[in-house]
Amino acid sequence: MKIWLDGGLQDSESARVSVFDHGLTVGDGIFETVKTVHGQAFALTRHLDRLTRSARGLGLPDPDHDEVRRACAAVLEANPAPLGRLRITYTGGHGPLGSDRGEHGPTLVVALGTTTRRPDSTAVITVPWTRNERGALTGLKTTSYAENVVALARAREQGATEALFANTVGQLCEGTGSNVFVVLDGELYTPPLASGCLAGITRALAIEWTGAEETDLPLDVLQRADEVFLTSTLRDVQAVHRVDDRGLPGAPGPVTAKAMRIFEERSGNDLDP
Ligand code: PLP
């Protein structure tokens, strides 16, 4: 497979990043996962804007959007994959051991992975750990994902595919790699960014296209919501049919099914909404 590294395409087998890259030694990096549709990147402008916001949050130099676009196009052209995802990784780069960055400058890697089609509905769990809604990294899409790895492993142990977090004040926040929406009395709600959740691109599109309202929701809303769904680049809109021990038979319910339909139609009509 061909990946983009150091300004050009390289063979993934032989491409090398320094063992002193700060993405590896201190988790000093950011990333984007971009869906590909018919061999093209979906919503790339929004992903690049978020990449820049994350870079600024970490004090990394602004990524060069033209280079990232060229890298994505080159990787897609070199590796045709029918159901794929681009992974853009941008790190602090080679530097001394410790937290101070070196002079070398950032590392940019663009690679392509395959994805499988997600089922229309899934099971989720809630976890006892909290998202920090006021941390230095809140809202940034950093490579420091170990907390999500741990929570997702807990979900898998319980036959679920996603784990949902509350924040430190007990409000529903997000999943390890998704945002969450709930239906109450026919109305659609999602936690606000102030809950500490990531500004998901699928979330933003779902809000714009369905008129969902952003509002604080206690975690236990999941025990009484009529419908629950997740959004993410790799799930699009995915219904939830179980939260912990509570079944939600009939998922996707009517509001979720409508959101799925709208999302499929609108995203199919516009590659860069
Ligand atoms: N929240 C977290 C923590 C994520 O990692 C992701 C995506 O990976 C999302 C939400 C969903 O964001 P998006 O719709 O941009 O994929």
Automatic annotation (TrEMBL):
Q: Which GO terms describe its biological process?
A: folic acid biosynthetic process
InterPro entries assigned to the protein according to its UniProt record, in alphabetical order: Aminodeoxychorismate_lyase_IV, Aminotrans_IV, Aminotrans_IV_CS, Aminotransferase-like, BCAT-like_C, BCAT-like_N, Class-IV_PLP-Dep_Aminotrnsfr
| Cofactor(s) needed for function | pyridoxal 5'-phosphate
Keywords, in A-Z order: Aminotransferase, Folate biosynthesis, Lyase, Pyridoxal phosphate, Transferase
What Enzyme Commission number(s) does the record list for this chain? 4.1.3.38
Where is the secretion signal located?
none
Q: Has UniProt tagged this entry with the keyword Aminoacyl-tRNA synthetase?
A: no
What Gene3D superfamilies does the entry give? Answer: 3.30.470.10, D-amino Acid Aminotransferase, subunit A, domain 2 (3.20.10.10)
- What pathway does the UniProt record associate with this protein? Cofactor biosynthesis; tetrahydrofolate biosynthesis; 4-aminobenzoate from chorismate: step 2/2
Per UniProt, subunit arrangement is: Homodimer.
The record, for PANTHER family, names: AMINO-ACID AMINOTRANSFERASE, AMINODEOXYCHORISMATE LYASE
Q: What is this protein identified as? A: aminodeoxychorismate lyase
* Organism of origin: Streptomyces viridochromogenes (strain DSM 40736 / JCM 4977 / BCRC 1201 / Tue 494)
